[in-house]
Design goal:
By secondary structure, this protein is an alpha/beta fold. It has ten helices and 13 strands. About 40% of the residues lie in helices and about 25% in strands. The chain has two domains: about 120 residues, 3-Layer(aba) Sandwich (Rossmann fold), CATH 3.40.50.10440; about 120 residues, Hypothetical Protein Tm841, Chain: A,domain 3. It is globular and about 55 Å long.
């Protein structure tokens, strides 16, 4: 029996190394539309070009989820499929993945397909993908892989930090005056993915140092003990990502910390200098 793990492109990952012959990994891309231009969030995307286009465009940029047909194409490539999507609180991707499941099972009822609404994005999805691989490679049956992955997902957390508010202003979620003042005052906004998969702002602070300290405090308060991996995604802010990783290692020696650049969709939300932390 062959397995496939498939996720939408907000997971940051584009490849998984060292997979056996019966397990594969793939992604389906979201799209970012800036005026008349469309950027496909795949391995070929030049995120810097996309971010520059967003910055130079006066109107709001928008996103589009993968079609059911794109999901279905991946589902057909294995006997047993684990699909992971960005939170349904921000995107229609989960519903699209479910429609694809119904389409495929109608003509291939022998297949097994599980779709997980991660209620998150970015680094938390990376953790779920790694866990799915671990469970599959342990030889567990399909139903047990699904059950344990769902429990694991509920125990993860996601924090984000914004340093740029242009996208919020252009999409009408923040006034131009407030956005200008926040930038002029070197403000940082720290938030989390809520239990319902919505964006929840937690704290505003001035400067990157205080922002990183608040993220560390938040991870600590959540009960993190250093035994699980942490994934830090950054939007053109590798220095801050390494500073945060050092802070994690100082507090929890031996903790596994991975640093990744944000992909197209997560760059759309995090904006320049933003961080996304899954743990």
């Amino acid at each position: 029996m062959t397995w496939k793990i498939v996720a939408d492109s907000s997971c940051e990952l584009r490849h998984l190394e060292g997979l056996g012959p019966d397990l594969s990994f793939d992604t389906v891309p979201l799209k970012i539309r800036v005026g008349e231009r469309e950027f496909v969030d795949n391995a070929a995307l030049d995120t810097a070009v996309m971010m520059s286009a967003m910055g130079n465009y006066n109107g709001p940029a928008t996103t589009a989820c993968p079609s059911p047909e794109e999901w279905a194409e991946k589902y057909l490539q294995a006997d047993q499929v684990i699909a992971l999507t960005i939170t349904s609180g921000l995107s229609g991707t989960y519903n699209s993945a479910l429609v694809a499941k119904e389409m495929v099972l109608e003509s291939h009822p022998e297949k097994k397909i599980y779709v997980l609404d991660t209620l998150s994005t970015g680094g938390q999805m990376v953790l779920d993908i790694w866990k799915a691989r671990e469970l599959i490679e342990a030889g567990l049956p399909f139903e047990q892989v699904c059950a344990e992955l769902e429990i694991y997902n509920q125990q993860r957390g996601l924090l984000f930090a914004l340093a740029n508010f242009d996208n919020l202003v252009k999409n009408g979620r923040m006034s131009r005056l407030v956005g200008f003042m926040a930038g002029a005052m070197n403000m940082r906004a720290v938030g989390r993915a809520s239990d319902a998969g919505k964006i929840e702002l937690l704290h505003k602070t001035r400067g990157e140092t205080r922002m990183l300290a608040y993220i560390l405090e938040s991870i600590d308060r959540s009960g993190y003990d250093g035994s699980g991996p942490v994934v830090i995604s950054h939007c053109f802010n590798e220095t801050a990502a390494h500073l945060l990783a050092n802070g994690i290692h100082n507090k929890w020696p031996g903790a596994r910390v991975e640093i990744l650049p944000t992909g197209g969709l997560t760059s759309f939300y995090a904006e320049r200098q933003g961080l996304i932390v899954g743990y």
